[in-house]
Amino acid sequence: MLALTEVHPCLWYCCPLLKAYLAVIMIQFENSSDQKSLPRKQLTSMLDKWFLLARKGQMLPQQMVYYFDLITRVSYREGFVILLDVWQYFQVQFFSFFLFCYFKILKNTKIFPQNFCNYLYH
């Protein structure tokens, strides 16, 4: 997947995989036996890889890139709440992407994810 991040719109097509990986991380945050402790190194390593993919694939806004540093310094419970915010962001973004594609299909125009990105961020 790291290779797909080099060509901007490609990672958008792998969104279900990226969301599944995020869900695995969130479950581990939520199911930790000691909710008040800091996340363990293995889990922060997984999270670092996820943020790297999302950042390089231009799927996260710049403000959310800093969430990783924050999550590594807070408890499991607080980290889960932050990740929930990221999850909700993805839900809204990709519902919008679905609608964008649907209307493009109705207009019989080609669908390019970069057009969607331009539509969202400008």
Automatic annotation (TrEMBL):
Gene Ontology CC annotations of this record: integrator complex
Alphabetized InterPro entries for the sequence: INTS5, INTS5_C
Transmembrane residue ranges: 86-106
Alphabetical UniProt keywords: Membrane, Transmembrane, Transmembrane helix
The keyword Membrane appears for this protein: yes
Pfam families in UniProt: INTS5_C
Residues of the Integrator complex subunit 5 C-terminal domain: 1-92
Record-level GO BP terms: snRNA 3'-end processing
Domain of life, per lineage: Eukaryota
Name used for this protein in its record: Integrator complex subunit 5 C-terminal domain-containing protein
Organism, as annotated: Wuchereria bancrofti
